[in-house]
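User: I'm putting together a teaching handout on how multi-component assemblies are represented. Below are the sequence lines for each component of a complex, exactly as they appear in our records. Could you produce the 3D structure of the whole assembly as structure tokens, so the students can see both representations side by side? Please keep the chain order the same as the input.
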Amino acid sequence: MQQQVDAEKRQVLRSPRTSGAKRTGAQLIWEMLTREGVQTVFGYPGGAIMPAYDALPGYPIQHVLVRHEQGAAHMADGYARASGKVGVAIATSGPGATNLVTGIATAMMDSSPIVCITGQVSSAAIGSDAFQETDITGVTLPVTKHNYLVTSAQEIGPTLREAFHIARSGRPGPVLVDITKDAQQLTAELESDPGELRAPNRSVHGSGWRDLQRAIDLINTAERPIILAGHGILKAEASQLLIEFAERTGIPVASTLLGLGGFPATHPLSLGMMGMHGEAWVNSAIQEADLLIALGMRFDDRVTGKVATYALNAKKIHVEIDPSEINKNVKVDVALIMDVRAALEELFGHSERRDRQAWHDHIAMMKGDSAVRDILSLPENGRLFAAHVVHDLWRLTEGNALVVTDVGQHQMWEAQYYKHDHPRKLITSGGLGTMGFALPAAIGARFAKPDDEIWVIVGDGGFQMTACELSTCAQEGLKLNVAIINNGYLGMVRQWQQFFYGGRYVATPLKNPDFVMLAQAHGLTGLRVTRREEVAEAVARARAEPGTVVIDFRVEQEDSVYPMVPANADLHDMIRRPNPLVETAGDS
Amino acid sequence: MTHALPFRTFIADVEDRPGTLNRVVSLFRRRNFNIESLSVGRTERTGVSRVTVVVRADEDTARRIEANLYKLVNVLRVQDVTHTATVVRELAFIKVKVGHERRGEVLKLCELFRARVVDLHPASLTIEITGAQEKVHRLIEVLRPFGILELLRTGAVAMTRGSDEQGAEQREIMPEEHSDGIAA
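Assistant: Of course. Below is the structure of the complete assembly, with chains in the same order as your input.
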């Protein structure tokens, strides 16, 4: 790593631009991005950022022109999640900057490292309500890990260097750097001897040997333990270690939505997803467990259900890099404030080899009693359910696609029916639940993973929030496969209206455009699927096309996601699929 | 409900930069931690300010407040001094409605509390008091029957007693101050 950085530094120092001469602030921006190894930025120009754009052609950085700045932030986020590197978005002042906010908040909630660079009006005009002036550092203060207002050219270098460091260190997150127009235009020298970087997340909290010993004792003496694997497994690149730990200790693994893929879904110890739309037997097992080992997750309300009745029989070990998460939602017995990988390395060496067969048998028994996968055993009468689409996609892509989902019913069906065996193969907006995330995030992922097969699975509602980015796909000549799960409703809200609001479908039916024609209008291929037997052919066609393909899957309109823990209900108190014709009790 | 919780006092050394106080305050607002008092000012180190913040919080919340403060890049050091030996002082101005006939009583109370009269008017007296919050609170309570026209409290500032292990080398050690009257 260090060698790579040194090599990059030498390369930059050799180039004529960096021979000690003064540079404009605009040049310094790209110089610093180049030093940080940035190859692609996602952005949209405008008045206050024009000096930076004008300097771009001299640098080896590809700029992707988005159609709305929200897309730029999501693309940077998708890039970061697919690659593990820092994603970069760039926008102008005022509306350009505020349009980034949804994407920044999304990255904040899911701990995704992005750096957003915005133009700002000239320093002399700040505070005067100048044209396109917004206090974007004020606006984004609560949704960034840190942000900066830069008003001089000489600050640009050190600030950007620190911004990248903060974005990717500790618990990663978004950093915004707001740079005034005059700072971009004035000149400064490139810092030749960068000083020490400040380390964020300094804390007096730490976990010592005593905490580790207590955790090890709990693990070795537990009879009914469960590992709760979160996003931290992916962030810490700890998947392989988790597999080894689970196999050694015989402890089954349940995943959060963002943790999916961190432990192979097809592994015998995998329980699948927990929580609101998790498997019923998994939630029941959590409620019966005597030990929960929470790895890089934060006991979100979608995971716990009602906290007062959550896993009352279980001791809890919380491995978490961010000390502010400890005892936030759920009180724990042992907190290991450290990187998940470091914790697993310690725990692995001291945990006893166990098989815990009785516990596995008990869980298997509960599973047999359950019927989550029932929909897959539907008679082949041609009716198209979203679960069919996702299941067939999983089968046809052999579980190897990088899937990017949006938010809502399709997102839960994807999590239930697409079995992810590898990390960073599912990208989805978990914490903020941002509709419109999927298409732009997939574009970002495309630049991070040029060779992966990428499928966007998106609802008809969410797709229309950022459908303009189809133009970006067309302009950049990108290959994506977009599966619209089209049920003509804002499905998840409709489902809640059905369950909790007396079936009054207020503002949820959608009159949609013709998505096939919409794709064609962008010069892309559009396909429509209305019956189960057409799925495989459409998927095959999409995979064969060189460009982006949009498939309009017309699915069952009023299907719901089962099982479901109603908001703030006990985790084991789930709404189950009511229709006995549909509920066939088989797990295919 | 929050009133049942004990007071906790934190001192935070922060970088003296535009927006730092905003970040600290925004954190308390966003996380729904209720600020009882907050004061900020320069320190012996250039570019470093000291924030003293008093909140009502249980032990777990106090730990999270500390951890959240540390997540702010501009925060250099945080101490929960609730259970540490500290000097805690607050300043208050109390304008009391009192004419010449009962002025003597008020002045007597001021003497007892080592408070100072900073403004005298035929119909009012303005008193300055410096002390621990409890002492300030008690003076206010004994003055309340006279009629308080105006009241202003700065909020507590706190400093640990003795030589501080983590920053002692940079700091001048001042002699322990003399007794500060009742309830100090």
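A couple of points students might notice: Chain B has two domains: 2-84, 89-157. The beta strands of chain B are 7-15, 35-42, 48-56, 75-80, 86-97, 116-121, 124-131, 148-153, 157-160.
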